Amino acid sequence: xxxxxxxxxxxxxxxxxxxxxxxxxxxxxxxxxxxxxxxxxxxxxxxxxxxxxxxxxxxxxxxxxxxxxxxxxxxxxxxxxxxxxxxxxxxxxxxxxxxxxxxxxxxxxxxxxxxxxxxxxxxxxxxxxxxxxxxxxxxxxxxxxxxxxxxxxxxxxxxxxxxxxxxxxxxxxxxxxxxxxxxxxxxxxxxxxxxxxxxxxxxxxxxxxxxxxxxxxxxxxxxxxxxxxxxxxxxxxxxxxxxxx
Length: 245
Description:
Elements: H1 16-21, E1 24-28, H2 31-35, H3 48-51, H4 61-73, H5 84-94, E2 105-116, E3 119-130, E4 135-141, H6 151-161, E5 167-175, E6 178-186, H7 188-196, E7 204-209, H8 219-222, H9 227-240
Parallel strand pairs: 1-7, 4-5
Antiparallel strand pairs: 2-3, 3-4, 5-6, 6-7
């Protein structure tokens, strides 16, 4: 793997080969290992989301907006950007990931400078949560309906570009309204290896979790629309907040 070619490129152009070139692997974890608890709590607020199926059934305006954008995200127009980013922003705001009290902001299409192989390039996240000085959560849409690029390498490139210090970066990829959660260790050794275009001796192991929805083979097509899927996925969002810091 140390002999793989490492070249300067934007985060958008990262592939699985780039992960191998920088000694990065992704390991899927079960609920207890990933979140530190086997049973996840349901969100206490916005019960409409858990009990009412359609947007027009919602009493709460925030729940209406989330389900309305969920419907748009699940019905993309061929050849156009989807509403997945809009949906993610509505959901993260409603789930308390960003607020005035927390002094956290939601941003879309935020450009991040990426220093790679001794050249400056860019990584651009679809959605991110920021405080006044740092990135706290990155969200990358799976856009394989438009282009043949996997979302995971793009997300990891953004995570390497984003921190001002070493940390575990929280990340989410969205395929329609079906999320996958990531904890991405960003170390000084990894940052320097990417900057210099070198193979790091220490492996970086990224933890990944896919929600345990009732019908796994229909996970992508159903997304968050069925109520049983929605309860499972929202409980993951509720538990994942602990890693957004």
